[in-house]
Amino acid sequence: MKFPVVITVVLASLALTVDARVYFKEQFLDGDGWKSRWVESKHKSNYGQWKLSAGKFYGDAEADKGIQTSQDAHFYALSARFEPFSNEGKPLVIQFTVKHEQKIDCGGGYVKLFPDVLDQSDMHGDSQYYIMFGPDICGYSTKKVHVIINYKGENHLIKKDIKCKDDELTHLYTLIVNPDQTYEVKIDNEKVESGSFEDDWDMLPLKKIKDPEAKKPSDWDDRAKIDDPSDTKPEDWDKPETIPDPDAKKPDDWDEDMDGEWEPPMIANPEYKGEWKPKQIDNPDYKGTWVHPEIDNPEYTHDATMYKFDNIGVLGLDLWQVKSGTIFDNFLITDDVKEAEEFGKETWGKTMGPEKKMKNDQEDMERKLREEEEKEKNKEDTEGDDEDDKEDGEEEEGEDDEEPDDDAGIEEDNNAKPKDEL
Questions:
Q1: Helices (H), ranges, 337-347
Q2: Against a cut of 0.90, is the pTM above it?
Q3: Which domain holds residue 89?
């Protein structure tokens, strides 16, 4: 009796595998062939230029080649088109790798998903998109992963703060949008955030609102503590905050006609007790904090299609960078979460270790070179000091060995008289 159920489950699993689709994949493995698939926007005449590069350090010289920003302080606008599709009833997975090998100080590393009606030659910052996803870094305060969803023509920022990677290595970014209106953000194939569209974006009006007709009753006492009516202020409580310094004495040279009447300086009064307040006791009439009752929001309507986008057809890079050098690679758009995970393992997963090793080796070599240069500089400085000391010594020795000049005494004393004149 259980056998047909097993067959059904297996067939359903196979059906899901067969139906899984990859809508877009780009690894830049054919040299300059990418230039025929990607379109540079002409909306501005001074967009930054892209180049194909694996960067200064990498795991695989060919596999790690991606498109790299190459000009500082520029906007960049580049996009690629694919066969339009809708994510209705199935997951939408957007994935790519980013490497900020330039120690980025301010710039974007995100992508935008556009409808197929986008004019790629005129793509710009105000072009309407469906989803914006990826890292954004600017200074110390902004180091986050953007997840911006366009709903009914308006862009909505996620309410959660998702930290991005800010080192110089390659990282894998993945966004999964599910048909049950949940989402998941992964970095390096590890989940870093998840939730639902309704909870984490302000796309819909609130389900509940405060009842505009409800008001706190006038006799509602929400004071947990009150003054003790039986407590009275002690008679000796009131003391001045400052008093004349009893140890001060009028200076001997004080002239009242010139300086006025002498008054001792004021000091803090050690007997001052501050403002008196009665003791607090529990309020016998306390009813607790009044909670404003809520009602169903008449403007709220559930929308089960917030996750859905029709005619998805363009992936774009529309960003600004102060310091260029970011490399984008391994783009993937699919409806198969497992496919994206495996693709990440086969690309980023295989090269991340060797890339890190190459970077560390380069840093070790640079450090050793700096140390050698510093040693050489110190050696030259020491030899220079020794040479200066030697020259100074020779000059001093020469001065001591100088023979006296016979005529020196005559030249120096012109007033001396010959013997015969004495």
A1: 337-346
A2: no
A3: 22-205+306-357
Annotation-wise, does 225 bind a ligand? no
Indicate whether 296 belongs to any domain: no
Amino acid at 396: E
pLDDT in tens, 132-175: 999 999 998 899 999 999 999 999 999 999 999 999 999 999 99
Contacts of 410 (CB under 8 A, 6+ apart): 416
Q: What is the total residue count of the chain? A: 422
What amino acid occupies position 399?
E
Q: Please tell me the distance from the alpha carbon of residue 279 to that of residue 226, in angstroms, as a whole number.
A: 8
CA distance 107 to 29: 26
Packing angle, helices 348-400 and 337-346, rounded to 10? 30
Has residue 300 been placed in a domain? no
Q: Tokens for 71?
A: 């000009």
Query: For position 149, which CATH number holds?
Result: 2.60.120.200
The DSSP letter of residue 167 is S
Q: Between vectors from CA 321 to CA 318 and to CA 327, what angle results, nearest 5°?
A: 75
In a domain, 190, yes or no: yes
The answer on whether 136 is annotated among ligand-binding residues is yes
110 is in an annotated binding site: yes
Q: Is residue 56 part of a domain?
A: yes
Number of independent structural domains in the chain? 1
Residue appearing with tokens 């302000």: 202
Q: Is 129 annotated as a binding residue?
A: yes
Contact 130, 312 (CB under 8 A): yes
